[in-house]
Amino acid sequence: MNYIPFKRSWLLSGCLVLLGVWGMESCTKKFEDYNTNPYGISTRDLSADFRLLGEPLKQVQLNIYVSQPAWNTQLQQNLMGDMFSGYMTPPTPFGGTIVNNETYALNDGWNTFPWDDAYTSVMAAVKAVVQNAGSTYPEFVAWARILKVEAMHRVSDIYGPIIYTKYGQVNKDGSVSYDSQKDAYYAFFSDLDSAVNVLAPLAQSATPSTITSFDLVYGGSYKQWVKFANTLRLRLALRIAKVDPTKAKTEGEKALAQSLGLLKDAPADVFNINIGSTSHPLNVMSNTWGDTRMGAPMESYLNGYNDGRAPKYFAPASDPAVSGQYKGIRNGVNIDSKDRYEGYSALANFSNLLQLMTPAEAWFLKAEAALRGWAGAGTIQTDYENGVKASFTQYGLDATAYLADGTSKPKPYVDPKAITAGQNDVLAGSSWLSTITIKWDAAASFDQQLERIITQKWLAMYPDGQEAWTEFRRTGYPKLFPVVINNSGGTISTTAFIRRINFASSERNTNPTGVAGAITLLGGPDNGGTRLWWDKP
């Protein structure tokens, strides 16, 4: 059965109602839920097994990237970050039209999901755990803060300003104020400081872990969570390197100097959330519904590099016109029916693990930090090559020959099934087709070295399209293909690509004063063409 996203977004008098999440609540009720504690418990309720602290954080882990239902995940990420990153493209003209996110005609009914998921399933639970644990169970508070940063930086990287430090603080007029993205990022760093200060000493002692029963990623290892927090800090530090270089360097070097280090070894250090018997949402989207396929840029890079990870990421196409090839769909193309492209490359089957960070990314972060001259980052080439090796090792592959390849380049893209001949082609010589090779070149310029690092990081972070889209906006790499059809009405530049998503319609309906302030903090119109604070040309 095909899933049509906008038919499962219920708009009742301007209020989005999610069955099974809020039930049939009013707009006013939903707004209040964002700012109250549904998990309130007394101190005597905290049993010896810590369940009343740990279970809410288990749900937080399962909702950073929603584990189920898959239609929610499709709206939270797949029809935004996964698509805008160049990883995936839907073959489906949802509801018989391509006037939606596919062609930059942003669909408010879709785009509220990242916001609503975060505030109902992450922020409320974290606030409750912090309040209930207090100073008695500092390890739960620390863990909650790391999870909160991981979840909420993703939300900020979609919208810009968010409600973070002011969460739960209702103004006299009933509104809730937003933090600027700069203030949110500074608060992320502060929360990571607090968490590491608590967990690092525990990790270096013989203290038994109290979070083991609830940890779906690292089985209760405080050491692993500190390494993740350090790597997350380095990720966020590099994110602001253009706009706030002094703060970026300070935070980046702090991450690099922390004694427990970064994520390093694959597959042991991969940040995978174990979702148990639940089907991976991408399996449902790709294999059950046929609603997502390989993106054209992925085809260009994987085929051009003869990349051994291709069969780990995608299945060969079944369409007779391209049978057996790894064939992707370009974003923003004219799709008359699902039959046209459904036979292009589906996604490979995923296990029951939701991947949100890899050791490969950590090595590429170090490589960029070294490129920028940050202390403790090591040698650029070594970090870069270790990143490629870690990614290949994660998939049981050897990167030796790949790293020695100094000639292979991304391949031109041609779509034999395009409705208008040539409209979906990116041929040799096109400014959109990268010429970057794999082998490290120490004599290359700063920009060429950065492109090489980010291109390989992009390949290694798959399938997390949200982080890949964010890094593309920050750096301009890897080179992607612009949409063929732009239905934004001029608000989003075809050649500059989409930069953000409009503020959530649920917020505009229930917190209009807060949103008005957020638009002021954004510094531009509330549309997909306005750059975020860290997104500098």
Provide the domain count. 1
Helix percentage: 40-55%
Helix segment count? 20
Structural class computed from helices and strand pairing: mainly alpha
Strand content is under 5%
Low-confidence stretches: 1-36
**Distance N to C terminus:** 43 Å
**CATH fold field value:** Serine Threonine Protein Phosphatase 5, Tetratricopeptide repeat
Sheet having the most strands: 2 strands, antiparallel
- Walk across the major sheet and give the strand order: 1-2
Measured on Cα atoms, how large is the radius of gyration?
A: 22 Å
Report on the structure:
The chain is mainly alpha-helical. It contains 20 helices and six strands. It has one domain (5-522): Serine Threonine Protein Phosphatase 5, Tetratricopeptide repeat (Alpha Horseshoe). It has helices at residues 27-33, 51-64, 70-78, 81-84, 108-111, 113-133, 138-159, 181-203, 222-239, 245-257, 281-288, 296-304, 310-313, 359-371, 380-394, 400-403, 446-461, 465-475, 505-510, 512-522; strands at 10-12, 15-17, 88-89, 271-274, 293-294, 353-357. It is globular and about 65 Å long. The model is unreliable at 1-36 (pLDDT under 50).
